[in-house]
Write a structure and sequence with these properties.
The protein is an alpha/beta fold and 435 residues long. The protein has 3 domains: 71 residues, Nucleic acid-binding proteins (OB fold (Dihydrolipoamide Acetyltransferase, E2P)), CATH 2.40.50.140; 122 residues, OB fold (Dihydrolipoamide Acetyltransferase, E2P); 166 residues, Rossmann fold (3-Layer(aba) Sandwich), CATH 3.40.50.150. The strands form 4 sheets. The protein has an 8-stranded mixed beta sheet, sandwiched between helices. Helix 6 links the parallel strand 15 and strand 16. It is globular and about 65 Å long. The structure holds S-adenosylmethionine. The site of S-adenosylmethionine has 19 residues, from helix 6.
């Protein structure tokens, strides 16, 4: 590990409860010298446990970090699954039994969507070891490579050896990537890898801070790396310039229904194939309940995960998305198979699709980024679209937009999919019908 924060002090406290929102324990600690400690949030601990924790100060911020349980371990505590747990910032809940974990996440989403608690009956948990996408940061320091995710509560990079949430194909690449960086980075160079397990193999992207291009000898090293590690492609990126250094005989792609859609290592995609299938299954069930589904508008469509996978439901579908590159990947498929898809590159935050245009469609699918889609929801709430399927990776912004949609739409069903295992994140799908 590289240098840790300056440590201030060690303390003992009792966990009164676990905060639903953050997932951290609320710890009471009576230390007369330090009134800050009376009630603090500490991650990785469970109700009733007596724990040892550290108070750490970094610049002007103070952090409280779990050290160990010293008395009364909670009966729902289980062995952590990964050696990096509590140090790595990636996972929060590996110490919970499956039952407690499920209960906690369900409580969290019910808490946010409290008016609709009775509609939230289950949680579909996508198991660990399936995530097909990873970003690793790296730095070369004192002739050593540190590569991995951020340390918990910090920007520091931990030196990752393994990871329980990622697909094994990506985990197996961690050590070879460190060896590669040893050869191509200079001291104090900072780099970032963007890795996707595509349908046909690994697609690796690399950026190196302040490096605009790679010398020929480094490219030769990368080509050799690509061959030895069975990569599908290796791309070096600086700003908007892409330098494809190695590519096997076929460019990386994802498959939506039977359509192959080209990707790059920086593309958005759902975290795993399994999560994507679960979401599509729930969406198809919802579509089966729509009284009319001749036409559909897919807002924040990306490269067509839903447009292409659900196209068989509609006579025509329109995909709207900000990313030019995503729309051009979708258009390639549309042209190749002559599909009834219309597409538009549009900033939906600044220029939402207006209600009169929305009225041309029976169904709207909307899947915004974590910020949600406030202005687009306002337009939807003025429209006469018959059904809306709102897919969200942030229940908080979903709850905000739901209030807007409620002016005109009735929420029929909510499905909750946990595609971010052991993290505090959740995916929800809301199904609405015109009042
Ligand atoms: C959660 S992803 C969903 C993508 C797609 N539905 C899928 O499942 O692959 C959100 C998408 O919104 C796009 N996006 C972000 N900001 C946007 C904006 N202001 N206007 C339109 N699209 C935007 C992103 O490029 C991304 O493709």
């Amino acid at each position: 590990m590289n240098k840790i924060f300056p440590q201030i002090s060690k303390h003992i406290g009792v966990v009164e409860s676990v905060d639903i929102d953050s997932g951290h324990g609320i710890v009471s600690c009576s230390d007369e010298r330090d009134s800050d400690l009376q009630k603090q949030k500490v991650a990785f601990c469970l109700t009733g446990e007596k724990i040892l924790f550290d108070k750490l100060k970094y610049r002007r911020a103070t952090y409280y970090t779990f050290a160990k349980v010293i008395e009364n371990p909670n009966t729902q505590r289980v062995e952590q699954k990964c050696p990096h747990f509590t140090i790595c910032g990636g996972c929060l809940f590996q110490h919970m039994s499956d039952a407690l974990y499920r209960e906690h996440k369900l409580k969290k989403v019910k808490n946010i969507l409290h008016h609709y608690q009775e509609k939230i009956t289950d949680l579909i948990v996508i198991p660990s070891g399936l995530r097909r996408k990873a970003n690793f940061e790296a730095i070369k320091k004192q002739d050593k490579i540190y590569l991995g995710f951020h340390r918990f509560n910090s920007r520091q990079i931990i030196n990752l050896e393994t990871c329980r949430i990622l697909r094994q194909e990506i985990v197996s690449l961690i050590e070879p990537l460190k060896k590669l960086l040893m050869e191509i980075l200079n001291e104090f160079d900072k780099a970032e890898f963007f890795i996707t397990l595509a349908e046909n193999g690994l697609d690796v992207g690399l950026e190196i801070q302040n490096v605009k291009f790679l010398q020929e000898e480094k490219k030769i090293i990368i080509q050799q790396f690509g061959i030895e590690n069975g990569l599908q492609r290796f791309t070096f990126r600086h700003g908007k310039k892409f330098d494809e250094i190695f590519c096997a005989n076929e460019k990386p792609y994802l498959k939506f229904a039977s359509y192959k859609v080209s990707i790059n290592p920086w593309s958005f995609m759902q975290t795993s194939k399994e999560a994507e299938s679960a979401m599509l299954g729930e969406m198809q069930n919802m579509l089966n309940l729509c009284s009319k589904k001749d036409s559909c508008i897919d807002l924040f469509s990306g490269r067509g995960t839903y447009t292409l996978s659900l196209i068989h439901n509609f006579r025509k579908i329109k995909a709207v998305e900000l990313s030019e590159e995503s729309i051009s990947a979708l258009n390639e498929v549309k042209d190749l198979y002559d599909l009834p898809i219309e597409s538009e590159i549009r900033n939906l935050f600044e220029k939402p699709v207006e209600s009169r245009e929305l009225n041309e469609f029976d169904v709207a699918i909307i899947n915004p980024p974590r910020a949600g889609a406030e202005s687009q929801s306002i337009e939807l709430a003025k429209s006469n679209v018959k059904n809306i399927l709102y897919v969200s990776c942030n229940p908080e912004t979903f709850a905000r937009d739901l209030k807007i949609l409620e002016n005109k739409y009735r929420l029929i069903d909510i499905k909750v999919i946990d595609q971010f295992i052991w993290s505090n994140h959740l995916e929800v799908i809301g199904f609405f019908e015109l009042k």
